[in-house]
Amino acid sequence: MKKILLILFLISTITCFGKDKGNNVRIVSLSPNMTEAIFALGKEDCLVGRSNACNYPEAAKKIPLAGNFGRPNIERVIILKPDYIVSSAMKDKDMIKRFKKFNIKVLFLPAKSFDDYFKTLKILGKILKCPKKAELLRQQSQAALKKFKEEADKIPVEKKKKVLFVIWDMPLMTIGQDSFITKMINYAGGVSVTAKHKKAYFTCSLEWILANQPDILVFPKIPSLRVKELIKRPGWKTMKAVKEGKLFYSINPDLLCRMGPRAIEGIKELQKVIKSVK
Amino acid sequence: MTLSRKETIGWLLLPVLLFSVIVFSLCAGSLWINPIELFTQDDLKNSLIDLRLIRCATAFIIGGGLAVSGTAYQAVLKNPLAEPYILGISGGASLGVALAILLGVAAISSFAIPLFAFVFALIALVVVLSISRGGLGGVYSENILLSGIIIGTICSSCLMFIISNLGSNDLNSITWWMLGYLQAADMNLLATTWIVTIGGTIILVAYGRHANVIALGEEMAYNMGISPLKTALILLGIASLISAVAVSLSGIIGFVGLIVPHIMRQIFGADHRKLFVLNLFYGGIFLLFCDTIARSILVVQEIPVGVITAFVGGPFFIWMLNRRGRING
Q1: Residue contact A171–B29, C-beta within 8 A
Q2: What pTM was computed for the model?
Q3: H helix or E strand, kind and range, residue A107
Q4: A65-115: pLDDT as tens digits
Q5: Of the residues A268, B115, B177, B195, which has the fewest C-beta atoms closer than 10 A?
Q6: How distant is the Cα of B185 from the closest Cα of chain A, in angstroms?
Q7: Nearest chain B Cα to A202, which residue?
């Protein structure tokens, strides 16, 4: 009797999975910006696994974990039986080959600029069978960017506020030319003080910052307690922006550091900050 | 006491080198300040010089402390590869820092990292010394070295486990810490480091004669009426305290504690009463010089100082070794 029950149970589960697969594409997202994009496309039903960094929207947290950011847990992924794995970062490029054996396609879609994001939308639209929605989303974002650019262009170059975007303070990590955050600051009507340095992220010398005083300091990733302490440190305390209190640490870092649907909101937040400084 | 020619030059060169390296470190950086204009008043210049003075004080005391502690280790353990981190101090401290970052306390206060580093370095040290006690009757130095390596390995595997679970952002701050960073965040911590290092060096100088005897071997120490075990523990304890404080202030900086003592011993001979003082100064000068290069070589960007100490110190050390080989051969 027990054996028969077990066999029945097995058959039922197999047929269930079979049905499920017939209806929907199954997709695992290993980066938060992809997860957000899939939700924005309204295709969260297809999402069967996520990374530990995918925390938005709230509903995303209920989706089973499939690994860390850009680092799939092979066993968990196989249990989730996806058709696709999408990620903007892939720590181990051999994963693509390894998953091929299980008939899982790995799509490595970089997210280093708005163009990358638009490409990602197009690809997601295609595999999730919602190209129109994806195109609409792209047009909306592009229109918003155009509006930001028009507004930013009205400010003469010499009057643009110089922003120092602090990722971490010990050592001072900041953004360079290749970071999309530099572009976001431009869209918001400011300039990044370290925009000329040809790198995405780098360790900057504090002396150089003192010699090229920024007007505004933005610390999205550092807790306010630490900011209050660090501005008393030698070097920091003599900065013009610190003396004038032009410090902003309440922006949600996820809006600025994820090249996804909420990047537009991020630019809006930056614009508010830049406009508030006279 | 008659001095050899090499030694006389070494002593005479010390104040000259010290002065010129300090001036160089105040002038050089991402913005060059003309030495003649060092004392003219200017807002930007003042804040730059403030910043550089603090960095100068940090680099000097850390370099000096590491070299002094390396000298003591090499004397007691009678091993040319001994360096300040060999007793698991760097492993313990790195593990502490990784924990501070993992638990999120590092993000709240800048005291968290030095505190965790110091406490864990001391824990590692106590564990090393107590497990090596088992075989202390005989060859103590080998026992201590081996226990240090074992604890260091255990710590680093825990560290690797934590690192594999950290996000990329936190990873950056821990790799930087492990390469050494000389911008002291807090004046009190810097002052503590100065007091411990200078005080420790004075005690070591007082034990200089004992260090000389113990470096010759345990039997010799017994014959001279010195308890090798007790002396070794005192010397190691003080040297470890100095390096633990240095590690907590500025992370792990390699090479200084290994090569400066060797070079000093070659130039000035093996009298530890002199060596501790000389290492304090020359170690400080060496690290100060390396750090100045690290922060001025690429404008805007900073290079980890450990990279420069290896690049500057490595070739110099090889040259010294070869030269000695040629003279002796």
Answers
A1: no
A2: 0.79
A3: strand A105-108
A4: 998 888 888 888 888 999 999 998 877 778 788 888 888 999 999 999 999
A5: B195
A6: 6
A7: B301
Q: Which residues of chain A have pLDDT under 50?
A: 15-21
C-alpha A71/C-alpha A77 separation (Å) is: 11
Say whether residue A230 is in contact with chain B using an 8 A CB cutoff.
Answer: yes
N residues, chain B: 329
How many Cβ atoms are within 10 Å of B314's Cβ, its own excluded?
12
Are the beta carbons of B48 and A171 separated by less than 8 Å? Answer: no
**Which residue among A199, A206, A222 sits closest to B51, beta carbon to beta carbon?**
A206
Among B167, B183, B299, whose Cβ lies nearest the Cβ of A208?
B299
Dihedral of CA atoms B171, B176, B177, B179 in degrees, nearest 10, equals 130
pLDDT band (50, 70, 90) for residue B30: confident
Sheet holding A27-29, edge to edge: A71-72, A65-68, A47-51, A27-29, A84-87, A105-108
Matching residue, tokens 């304090």: B280
A203 to B51: CB separation less than 8 angstroms, yes or no: no
Strand A47-51 versus strand A216-218 pairing type: unpaired
CB within 8 Å: A233 and B176:
no
Task: Supply φ then ψ for residue A106, to 5 degrees.
Answer: -105, 120
